[in-house]
Design goal:
alpha+beta; Aminopeptidase; 4 helices; about 20% helix
Length: about 140
């Protein structure tokens, strides 16, 4: 592990600032510093040292570990950030499937999910709502 990430608590103001700029942020008026943004259950919130990238894992029983947020404003390669976040999640939840949803209509990339695929993930379907499902299985 290269140590690109460090863990912070859910609701850390630096993480909240990045989360508010992610397309999945539903209500920017909610006090996310107080209540957090990772959702119910066990989670891991990661920031880069420069606080310009955010990754959030959430354990979903019976499904695996969900990347609920990945937002990179840094100069670091997104695929490298995903690889290291994978390693950290594997240490915490060994053997669990890693998965995420990508809304291709809300991102600028012409190849939605490319950074995950360069990190060894694969497309495995589309959700009922039209989101691309990506996964990495161990």
């Amino acid at each position: 592990v290269k140590m690109l990430w460090y863990p912070v608590r859910d609701g850390d103001p630096r993480a909240v600032a990045l989360y508010r700029r992610h397309y999945s942020c539903r209500d920017p008026k909610v006090d996310l510093c107080r209540y957090g943004f990772s959702g119910k259950g066990e989670s891991m919130v990661l920031l880069t040292l420069d606080c310009l990238a955010l990754f959030c894992w959430r354990l979903v029983k019976g499904e695996g570990v969900n990347c609920s947020v990945f937002h990179n404003e840094s100069s670091l390669l997104s695929s490298e950030l995903v690889k290291e976040a994978d390693e950290l999640a594997y240490v915490r939840w060994p053997g669990e499937r890693h998965y995420t949803y990508v809304n291709s209509k809300k991102i600028r990339s012409t190849n939605p999910g490319a950074c995950f695929m360069f990190a060894g993930w694969r497309k495995c379907g589309v959700s009922k709502g039209g989101l691309i499902i990506l996964e990495k299985c161990y």
